[in-house]
Description:
By secondary structure, the chain is an alpha/beta fold. The chain has a single domain, classed as LmbE-like (Rossmann fold, 3-Layer(aba) Sandwich). The protein is built from seven helices and seven strands. The chain has a seven-stranded mixed beta sheet, with helices on both faces. Helix 3 (83-96) crosses helix 4. The protein is globular, with a radius of gyration of 17 Å. The protein starts with 5 loop residues before the first strand and ends in an 18-residue tail after the last strand.
Amino acid sequence: xxxxxxxxxxxxxxxxxxxxxxxxxxxxxxxxxxxxxxxxxxxxxxxxxxxxxxxxxxxxxxxxxxxxxxxxxxxxxxxxxxxxxxxxxxxxxxxxxxxxxxxxxxxxxxxxxxxxxxxxxxxxxxxxxxxxxxxxxxxxxxxxxxxxxxxxxxxxxxxxxxxxxxxxxxxxxxxxxxxxxxxxxxxxxxxxxxxxxxxxxxxxxxxxxxxxxxxxxxxxxxxxxxxxxxxxxxxxxxx
Length: 239
């Protein structure tokens, strides 16, 4: 069985661990099948090699309890949102059939990041078109979530996931990428403040945790408004 409930898609190995590793770990602990799809091998990364990053990614996936981790093989620093890339990604979506997909933020410092965000949205749509790649049954994810962790854009999260119980597991997964992060103060969309990278990750998670009155959190944005059936069951006190 290769189907997953929750699939995180990102441009590079290690992006998912930084952005939504806690959410994946929490979902896996709750009994959901989780997956990661890295779009590139990260072959143009300044540190390490594609082979080293592949081994680190496998170790990180095991740490987070991920059921499936795959690589789409798109070119690093050259991801494009074209028909061929959309079909290639749509084929994976049809095979794994995720209900919820996590994508990068719609804006990003690295060109691969924001291109990936729109590529995920467009591929998810065309994956539901029966005449595209008719050798595979059509499938369209129900929900797309965009990570906002480390973002400085004036975009307020639609919601924040409480990752307090799995935050240390998130850090453990990040530590798997020794070639990328060891001794650094900055990585990807994580801007430096003079402290070790791990401390910066902790500060951000703590900040988003305070928004929902929890210790640690990971924020998400959805383009659609969230629905509430019972206003008396709403969490997070106003005062």
